[in-house]
Design goal:
It contains no helices and nine strands. A hairpin with a 4-residue loop joins strand 2 and strand 3. About 0% of the residues lie in helices and about 60% in strands. The chain is mostly beta strands. Strands 1, 2, 3, 4, 5, 6, 7, 8 and 9 form a nine-stranded antiparallel β-sheet that branches.
Length: about 170
């Protein structure tokens, strides 16, 4: 058991305020190429800040449970702002090194960019399939709300495209 994960922050300089507790009870038997794993590992009460994006991830909870031979079930949740994300999946390790993983990630209104200039919320619905040879990600990432406040416009950014629509402004007649 690891009652405090703050020491891990030394190895992740892009992260601030890392917290959480890691607890587990795992037994590994069998051959290295065909391990038999039984047990559970849990991350509870996790949180961290990402200074570059201004986001804070809280209420991070993750469980990896090996109950069936060659298979580890994965589940987790976290919050970002008022939004919540859930992940569920399976890691298959029955014949190493040929492992595979399937993961579903779903969330709503996650505040993942929170700087003076940009506040952006995302709502992912992704399926991730991974093997040693490839990672395939499919699905959608909606951006339900974003606010951009520019202090200065870049040089040459004063001309609007013909397809720009400004909400609340009356459109010229054509």
């Amino acid at each position: 058991n690891v009652p405090d994960l703050a020491w891990v922050q030394r190895y992740a300089p892009q992260v601030d305020g890392l917290q959480g507790q890691l607890a587990g009870d795992v037994r590994v038997t069998g051959l290295l190429s065909q391990p038999q794993i039984v047990g559970t590992v849990r991350l509870q009460g996790g949180s961290l800040s990402l200074p570059e994006t201004g986001s804070k991830l809280t209420d991070i909870n993750f469980t990896a449970q090996a109950a069936n031979p060659g298979q580890i079930n994965l589940s987790g949740t976290l919050r970002a702002g008022q939004g919540e994300m859930k992940a569920n999946g399976v890691l298959r390790i029955g014949r190493l090194p040929d492992w595979s993983a399937d993961l579903r990630v779903q969330g709503a209104n996650l505040l993942l960019m929170n700087t003076h200039e940009i506040q952006a919320y995302v709502s992912p619905d992704l399926s991730i399939k991974a093997t040693p040879q490839s990672v395939a990600i499919s699905g959608t990432v909606r951006i339900p709300q974003t606010t951009i406040t520019l202090r200065d416009l870049p040089t040459g950014a004063n001309k609007l495209s013909d397809d720009v629509v400004i909400v609340g402004r009356q459109q010229p007649r054509r």
